[in-house]
Amino acid sequence: MSVAAILAGDVPTAARLIRDLDDRRPDAVAMVKALWPHTGRAYIIGVTGNPGAGKSSLVDSLISHYRAAGDRVGVIAIDPSSPFSGGALLGDRVRMQRHALDPGVFIRSLATRGHLGGLSRSTFEAAHVLDAMGFERILIETVGVGQDEVEVMDAAHTTVVVSVPGLGDEVQAMKAGLLEVADVLVVNKSDREGAERTAGDLRTMLRLRASRTHEVEVVSTVATRGVAHGSGIAELAAAIEKHRSTAWTGPGAAARAAARARAQIESLVRTLLAERASRLLASRVSDPATDPWTVAEELVAAHMSSGSR
Are the C-beta atoms of 79 and 111 separated by less than 8 Å? Predict the structure, then answer.
């Protein structure tokens, strides 16, 4: 693998690098460090929401919209992990099939591998690789396993929260704090009964928010219609662009950028500490005479001792 190949947009090289980053190979980490000066051009859009909300269909339609506009699109789809292999249970081959042969689209599935918050432990690095390759738009779709997937806001410039009518998502979103992280709210499957009521309830809840740092637009979509008239995808893209002017160049841009950088460093620190603890733990678990509390205390003490030097 080489930096030049990634910068030239070589897909096989990028796929190998992302795989090796997910496996935490030292040479892959060195590579992404070398790519860092070539990043910062892509606009990252996070898509989150409850299972069954139609996130994949929405992402698929956004790909079509951006490709029609001439943008190259990278997609990072976070999937549940296999309990046996640790790999993604749902691969990119079963998602967004019609874009598979488009050289302007790169789709990669990543497994959560036990990482909480709806993302994979290597989501940030994968986004940097796609950024360095020259993709103007990067879409991150969270795993969709619950209502606590707020970590995507740390990785994205614009966070899109998807709900559907009839499932009580508007109440769940309020409880989970998703309304607080949303930059754009989508009521997907809006051809269903109750869609207007759901959109109205969300707008009411937005007005009642304790924190109102920015305006959040509510958009109704029928993602299965693609980019056809009445699908709402063009309106969604327009809402994202409206937020982009605030997120990237507006008065809050510097603070958001600092928050994203801090979140990535914190994620890396947690990963590195967990890996170190696992290595140390492997040498101690074979001794049945040592209780787990003592082992844990020794691991923390060893970390504190090395950190103070």
Answer: yes
From first to last of its 309 residues, the chain has per-residue pLDDT tens of 789 999 999 999 999 999 998 888 889 989 999 999 999 999 999 998 877 888 989 999 999 999 999 999 999 988 754 433 444 444 444 556 678 788 999 998 887 654 444 456 688 889 999 999 999 999 999 876 454 456 777 788 999 999 888 766 555 555 556 777 889 999 999 999 989 998 998 888 888 776 666 788 999 999 999 999 999 999 999 999 999 887 777 777 888 888 888 888 887 887 777 777 777 666 666 666 777 778 778 777 776 666 544
**Helical residues (DSSP H) of the chain, grouped into ranges:** 3-7, 11-22, 26-35, 55-68, 123-133, 152-155, 169-176, 178-181, 195-207, 233-249, 253-282, 292-307
Domain boundaries of the chain, sorted by first residue: 37-250, 261-307
Give the fold, CATH level 3, of 37-250.
Answer: Rossmann fold (3.40.50)
Distance CA 57, CA 39 (A): 28
How many C-beta atoms lie closer than 10 Å to residue 70's C-beta? 8
Residues 6+ apart with CB under 8 A from 105: 63, 67, 72, 73, 74, 75, 96, 99
